[in-house]
Every structure is written in C-alpha cells, then in structure tokens.
Amino acid sequence: MEITGNSGYNRTGRVFSTDSPLHAGNGVGREETTILVVEDDPTLLSTLSYSLIRLGYRVLPSSDGENALTIARREAERLDLVLLDVMLPGINGFHVLRQIRGMSDVPVLMLSARGEEQDKIDGLELGADDYVVKPFALRELLARVRAAVRRRAAPATRPPAVLYRGPLRIEPERRRALVGNHELHLRPKEFGLLLTLGMEPGRVFGRQDLLDEVWGEEIIVDERTVDVHISWLRGKLAEAGITHDMITTVYGAGYRFVVPIDADPVLHGDAPSSIGVLPVLNEPGIGSLSDEGHPARR
User: Fold this and answer.
1) Architecture per CATH, 162-278
2) 70, 156, 168, 253: which is deepest, by most CB within 10 A?
3) Which residues contact 103 (CB under 8 A, 6 or more apart)?
4) Model's pTM, two decimal places?
C-alpha cells in the first residue's frame, strides 16, 4: 500500500486523507494521540506508521518538509508528538523543527543517519526533545515514543502564577522571567532550571534531580549538560543586572538557589516581598523560545 504525503492512518488501519478534517464518526476522536511522522524513506515511513497504528496512535505520515509543515499548521491543536527525519528533500529537518517550534511546543523526536555529536547538539539546541541515530532498534524507538506521549499527557503540579525572588520575577504560566522591566530571553531548559531552583530556595538539587525534573526521567542526557545550562543561565542573569550569584554551586552535591537578604525585591517593580507569590494573572500565555540540550549517555 502506498502512503502519500497527504494520507494518514487511524487505528483501524484505514488510510484517510489528511487534507480532510477527521470526525468521531470515522473512528477517530479528539482523545486519540496524534503523531506526525516525517520520513522520506517510503519503507521506513510505512514501517513506523504501521507500528504506531498497532499501538493505537493516529498517524499522519509525510515524506517531505513542506508537506510536514502544512500538516503541522493544520493539526497544531491535535499533535502530541512529531517524529522528524533530518535529511529530507527540499527543506531539511532542522528547518522544519525551527518552524514547528515557532508555533508549538509539541515534543519532537529527531531521526537521523548522521550520528556526529554536533548534529545532535544542533537538533537539541533548536528544540528537539530527543535524537535517535539510524539504524535504530524499533522497540527502543517505540519505547521513546511512549515515554514522550506519557510525559505530555501527565498532569503537572501547578506552580504559583508569579514568584518573586529578590530582584527576579518569574512567571511560570507565561514562561518568562524579568528583572525590573527587562525580560530575560531564556531557552526552555534554562527557564525550567530557573523555575525548578527558584521554587525551593535553599534546597540543594543534584544534577540528576535537575535532569529528571527539567529533561524528564526517560531522557538519556549527560549530567554535564546541567553545568552548561547553568552557566548560560548565570550569564543571562548577570547581563540583566543581577550582580550576586543567585544560583550557587554546592561542590560534590549540585546547585542551590539563594536570595540574598539585602537584595532589592524588584527593580522598578511592586513586589510585596523578596520572596512572595501573587494570585493568578488573567493574561494569556506566551510561548517559549527554542529548546536546547547536549546529548550523551548518563
């Protein structure tokens, strides 16, 4: 059976056109997990699609980047995961990833025959959540898919709407941090680290704790990745005018968030105290910037 770029599969194994809206009447409901599979090798595309269907997923296959972006835009509210090949005809997977990150935070798992470290770094820094090198074991890939879907579906503990940490204002729902009126341009992992540490000032977080909290327990990442991201985060805090080190290193243990006693509550702001919580703001959320990371085994 040939799979065209505008076709998809549901769990019945029937082929449908992804150019048409799907309705509950044809066996496809909004509760189904939807996965966009972008792969120019027809055999691999067919194999991945069939395997995912057997697991009960709704699959949208695409064999090129342009068509993948068309599907991603149309299905943005329904997508739960994207499997994205790097080497595609026309625009490559990195370009597709950059465009997807501009409109969605859907998990993206990169597939590539290029296993060089720099390629992995490029993909992760552009916002990929995982990177799998070909050839790969199908069972391992499917396990990674299930893990990514579980993480996206799992309800998260709702943090306070606004945190004040000395001169720093953290807005979890809007995924942004400000020093006075200056917004820090943080990548998602940097913001995740800042929020995790800032939620519990004084607590020592081990590198593995931070990896599990920010990257996810199933993601295989080297612990030194945390050090690199902490370094970037410290640099951005310093550029924003924070002269003291709010994220301190506890040698042999990890990192701790510290709010100095003499820190100004908020520069040009109106925080009630140096460590406080405000009620939920009735403001729309704002998407985050591209993701990043460094792959390696831990």
Assistant:
1) Orthogonal Bundle (1.10)
2) 168
3) 72, 73, 76
4) 0.49
